[in-house]
Write a structure and sequence with these properties.
Shape: globular
Largest sheet: 7 strands, mixed
Bound molecules: S-adenosylmethionine
Strand order of the largest sheet: 3-2-1-4-5-10-6
Order of helices and strands: HHEHEHEEHEHHEEHHEEE
CATH superfamily: Vaccinia Virus protein VP39
Number of helices: 9
Number of domains: 1
CATH architecture: 3-Layer(aba) Sandwich
Distance between the termini: 30 Å
CATH topology: Rossmann fold
CATH class: Alpha Beta
Radius of gyration: 18 Å
Number of strands: 10
Structural class: alpha/beta
């Protein structure tokens, strides 16, 4: 994953608030999966938007991430909201203690969910089932910042398909009952200034300072004004994969 810029956590939190992520994209299957007596492991929880959403639906959540800064954001936000059933674990999964929980979720932790052994561990360690979200493929015309990438000579599809079909196939093979759906949802980025919008776009496409002038030339295609702020509209596509044992 690209390293977060200093303002990345705030950008992400504001995007989640504006576009109601993950409730709008994955709220329904997650609510259907989780019961009030469950302990849930949230692998790659990031700043904890999913953990905070499901906190009222279950007994206990272990929110695990290798990024300690993201976990500190989660802890501060949980404290602010009076949420007391989330424990954080600063680990790189599957290293560390692999406890069993009723449910395991992993939203967009694509690299870790690409390996057979890791998927097998998810299957084995989840007592009842789980939910995995992974980036889905998109066509050239749907690709965020496609024209800009072409102008910079950046190869097609900076957010490649994370192979949800493979995840489904492995879980099927292991004996799980699997259902999956492609989810298309708005998840754009609100930003305070034009300069922030330029930095955000550069970060998204993985371009460095040397691309600044080209990004500036194309920026009007990718931003809209709202009030005295800016929005970079983005449509995301993911596979939502539910499994039950
Ligand atoms: C794209 S973010 C998704 C965050 C969150 N699940 C969400 O949907 O908002 C991926 C997160 O997974 C974490 N991550 C990636 N690989 C990991 C691993 N092997 N163990 C623990 N955390 C991991 C990253 O640090 C990052 O916070």
């Amino acid at each position: 994953m690209k390293p977060w810029p200093p303002e990345g956590y705030r950008w992400y939190r504001e995007a989640c608030e504006m576009f109601d992520y993950p409730a709008r994209a994955f709220g329904e299957p997650l609510k259907a999966l989780i019961s009030s007596a469950d302990t849930v492991l949230d692998i790659g929880c990031g700043i904890g938007v999913a953990s905070r959403m499901i906190a009222p639906w279950c007994k206990r959540i272990i929110a695990l991430d290798s990024d300690g800064n993201a976990l500190r954001q989660l802890e501060a936000e949980a404290l602010r909201c009076g949420i007391t059933n989330i424990e954080t674990a600063n680990d790189s999964w599957p290293e560390g203690k692999l406890i069993q929980t009723d449910i395991i979720i992993a939203l967009h932790v694509c690299r870790a969910m690409r390996k057979f052994d890791n998927l097998k561990l998810v299957f084995e360690r989840a007592k009842r089932g789980g939910f995995i979200a992974s980036n889905a493929s998109c066509s050239l015309s749907e690709e965020p910042f496609g024209e800009l990438n072409a102008a910079l000579g950046i190869a097609h599809n900076p957010c490649p398909c994370a192979n949800g079909c493979y995840i489904k196939g492995v879980l099927d093979t292991l004996g799980a009952h699997v259902t999956c759906a492609k989810v298309v949802y708005d998840f754009g980025q609100p930003l305070d200034t034009l300069d922030e919008a330029l930095r955000f776009i550069r970060w998204q496409i993985g371009a460095d300072e040397s691309a600044a002038q080209t990004v500036e030339k194309y920026v009007d295609r990718y931003i809209v004004r709202f009030g005295n702020r800016y929005l970079v509209p983005i449509t995301r596509q993911s596979c939502g994969i539910t499994f039950l044992k």
